Amino acid sequence: MTIRVVVVGKAKGILEPAIRDFESRAGRYWKLEVTEVEAGAGGGPQDPARVREVEARRIRDRLPTRGEVWVLTREGRGMSSGDLARELGDRALAGSPGVAFVIGGAFGVDPEIAGRADRALSLSRMTLPHSAARLILAEQLYRAGTILRGEPYHKGGE
């Protein structure tokens, strides 16, 4: 099963090495494809609605034609690490083509992309920078793989 992460913006700064590390680790358990799309709408003042619309086109062009789309948003439903592992494991066993996770930019995800998503998932009720959300998602994908294989990384009950 393929796990695709479509993220607005590039991994950079102090979180970049950790992001790359956990994406590499998660790639041991899933066929992981990470696609970075350009942030913003070009030069000049940035109208939030316009930025979301332009970023939505870039995201839409990178989404798979088959499989599920899960948008990461603070308004989404939270889930434990164990629940995420079970959800992904169930899809893999059922022969699902995969799940595409979408991480929006500074102004969030356009309503058109959110409306087409199969699930809205929250990593936190707090607003997170997209780099932090990407790091948390990568770590959770790695954790889900270790949970499904019964490996000792996950110490939590759920």
Task: State the main characteristics.
Alpha/beta knot; alpha/beta; 158 residues; globular
Task: Please explain how this structure is put together.
- This protein has 158 residues and is an alpha/beta fold.
- Helices cover 39% and strands 21% of the residues.
- It has helices spanning 16-26, 48-60, 81-93, 111-116, 130-148; strands at 2-8, 31-37, 68-77, 98-103, 119-121.
- Helix 1 (16-26) runs parallel beside helix 5 and helix 3 (81-93) packs across helix 5.
- The protein is globular, with a radius of gyration of 15 Å.
Largest beta-sheet characterization: 5 strands, parallel
CATH architecture classification name: 3-Layer(aba) Sandwich
Q: Span from first to last CA?
A: 23 Å
Identify the overall geometry: globular
Question: What order do the helices and strands come in, and which of them pair?
Answer:
Layout: E1 2-8, H1 16-26, E2 31-37, H2 48-60, E3 68-77, H3 81-93, E4 98-103, H4 111-116, E5 119-121, H5 130-148
Parallel strand pairs: 1-2, 1-4, 3-4, 3-5
Summarize this, please?
With 158 residues, the chain is an alpha/beta fold. It has helices spanning 16-26, 48-60, 81-93, 111-116, 130-148, and strands at 2-8, 31-37, 68-77, 98-103, 119-121.
